[in-house]
Amino acid sequence: MLGGENTETINSQTIKKIIAKIAETMREQKDYLSGLDAAIGDGDHGVSMVRGFNEAESRLSKLQDNRIGSILKNVGIALTSTIGGATGPLFGSIFLRAGQAIGDKETVDLDDLAQMFQASLNGVIDLGKAQAGEKTLVDALSPAIESLKKSVKQKKSLEEALEDAVSESKKGAESTRDMLAGKGRATYLGERAVGHIDPGAMSIYFILKSFNDVVET
After folding, report:
1. Which residues have CB under 8 Å from 76's CB, separation 6+?
2. CB 32 within 8 A of CB 55
3. What are the extents of the domains in the chain?
4. What is the second-level CATH architecture of the domain 10-216?
5. Are 145 and 109 in contact (CB under 8 A)?
6. What is the pTM of this model?
7. 57-103: pLDDT as tens digits
8. How far apart are CA 161 and CA 74, in angstroms?
């Protein structure tokens, strides 16, 4: 069930529910994500994501503004300010750029979502200079966006489009297992990074899955 009477749109209250679901998912997956990170990084990715989305959930519980752009901006600020290292600004930019793209709207449709996620990817690339194939969150985000844009052209339903995007994101995240790292701390490992999934990419999958789970409810 989507926000409002139109089953092809998502409203601001549903966006807030999605952020709460992401926070819940990150709490559930904290140890798994930190385990992935322990193999190729600092080992604190899960803890960091929980801290960031807990703060985002807390901010939104007090926010009266129903503009989706404002909601996403608050999430982005929370992630940027509470998650350390490069991860905070990167994940923060996903929500900040999406918020800038959608502005004052209080409902969004599939075309809006495709534009929002494209803006998010642009933000990540601008900030991190990463491209697909470098064992980063881009490898999970980029295929999901391509799937959404394809669904717009094919005039798929919102729910079907999100399901397809989540599936492509999961494939993208899992594909990082076989990649050499082109960015981040994992680059120091060289060949030893092969065989391990990138935790940032898997976090993107969990974010999109949470999004879809709320929309399908």
Report:
1. 92, 93, 94, 95, 96, 97, 99
2. no
3. 10-216
4. Alpha Horseshoe (1.25)
5. no
6. 0.91
7. 999 999 999 999 999 999 999 999 999 888 999 999 999 999 999 99
8. 26
